[in-house]
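Example for tutorial group B:
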């Protein structure tokens, strides 16, 4: 079995190539919409029937659009029609699924990646276009055993190719080891092995851009709005970089066959709710899903796996006696009100996360089993963390 991953690369067409690709997108969109309108009017969701009704008229109408792209537009319109017609049958809000610039799905016959270029079928023959890929995408491209489909997308005026890669599978051989990871609020990540990963100042940088965002929002001028858009892109890139570094460090800190255990959070926001207004605000939109996705593919590539556990009470439970009480935790410090056990609160949370996976303690007051081990002071800082410098956010307050 192999694994599939989607990477995003940005095309760097010449002015002429850009014009050709935009024209190709426009013609493909016209085909998509024609099929969607026909299918919607005739309540037709069958691909063969849609083909019979639309293929030749569309070929005649768009003679320069390669036949594979006409077929591809129909296939995509067919998918959209199926879900729209299903929604309609269920009495949900829906309409004819047309679009203004529908992505083109390329397949093995209509595109190829050669080195750092993409060769794409278009209304003006094959276009060979260089692309830029970020470091993570480049690594995956090098590892890939092959490519599957690719979507050509116009977003914010730029042309992107979302390429599905087939990656060779690294088998997971369970070594019976589990480590818990707390995506803490005092440190970006703390493992149950007492590795403190990521930099504290990431949060300060993030908070600074949050304040900048607020002040720009309150201005409301055209120039402030322009700055806001730029800032949003910078914040997203910064967080993505942090998530990449953090997931890499976590995987580097474990050996193959390890199960990396994290909390099943849809958003760190859920967790921050327990810990006061300020933390809630500054973590408002820091996506947990992205972090988990990065962690999963990096873990898989290293012969590890990721497991999730119920997040309830992981930060309030004493991992030694099982006593659960909100008052056990005071910010970054933990002191058990029942047995007096003390330590770094994120480290104790990480051990609870691991133990919940290993022995499945209940979140009720009974506590349950636990893997006993002492908390030694505030333990080692990771050797790796000091080398990473996050990209600076421009502006400042
Ligand atoms: Zn205790």
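The residue assignment follows.
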């Amino acid at each position: 079995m192999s694994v599939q991953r989607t990477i995003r690369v940005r095309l760097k067409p010449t002015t002429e190539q850009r014009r050709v690709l935009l024209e190709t997108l426009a013609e493909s969109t016209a085909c998509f919409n024609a099929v969607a309108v026909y299918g919607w009017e005739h309540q037709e969701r069958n691909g063969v029937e849609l083909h019979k009704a639309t293929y030749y008229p569309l070929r005649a109408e768009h003679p320069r659009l390669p036949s594979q792209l006409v077929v591809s537009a129909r296939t995509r319109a067919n998918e959209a029609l199926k879900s729209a017609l299903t929604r309609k049958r269920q009495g949900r809000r829906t309409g004819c699924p047309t679009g203004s610039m529908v992505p083109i799905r390329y397949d093995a016959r209509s595109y190829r990646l050669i080195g750092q270029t993409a060769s794409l079928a278009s209304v003006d023959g094959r276009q060979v276009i260089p692309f830029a890929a970020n470091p993570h995408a480049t690594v995956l491209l090098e590892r890939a055993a092959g490519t599957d489909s690719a979507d050509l997308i116009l977003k914010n005026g730029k042309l992107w190719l979302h390429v599905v890669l087939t990656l060779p599978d690294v088998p997971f051989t369970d070594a019976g080891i589990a480590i818990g990871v707390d995506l803490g609020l005092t440190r970006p990540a703390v493992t149950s092995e007492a590795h403190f990963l990521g930099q504290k100042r990431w949060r300060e940088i993030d908070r600074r851009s949050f304040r900048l965002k607020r002040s720009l929002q309150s201005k409301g001028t055209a120039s402030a709005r322009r700055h806001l858009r730029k800032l949003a892109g910078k914040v997203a890139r910064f967080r993505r970089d942090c998530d990449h570094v953090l997931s890499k460090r976590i995987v580097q800190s474990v050996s193959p066959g390890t199960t990396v255990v994290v909390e099943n959070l849809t958003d760190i926001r859920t967790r921050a709710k327990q810990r006061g207004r300020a933390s809630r605000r500054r973590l408002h939109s820091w996506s947990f899903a992205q972090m988990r996705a990065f962690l999963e593919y990096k873990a898989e590539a290293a012969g590890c796996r990721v497991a999730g556990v119920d997040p309830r009470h992981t930060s309030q439970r004493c991992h030694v006696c099982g006593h659960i009480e909100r008052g056990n935790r005071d910010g970054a410090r933990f002191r058990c009100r029942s047995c007096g056990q003390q330590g770094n609160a994120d480290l104790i949370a990480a051990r609870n996360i691991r133990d919940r996976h290993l022995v499945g303690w209940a979140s009720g007051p009974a506590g349950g089993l636990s893997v006993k081990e002492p908390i030694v002071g505030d333990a080692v800082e990771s050797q790796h963390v000091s080398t990473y410098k996050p990209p600076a956010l421009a502006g400042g307050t």
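Residues 318, 320-321, 323, 336, 338-339, 341 surround zinc ion (CB under 6 Å). Compare this with the pattern of hydrophobic and polar residues in the output above.
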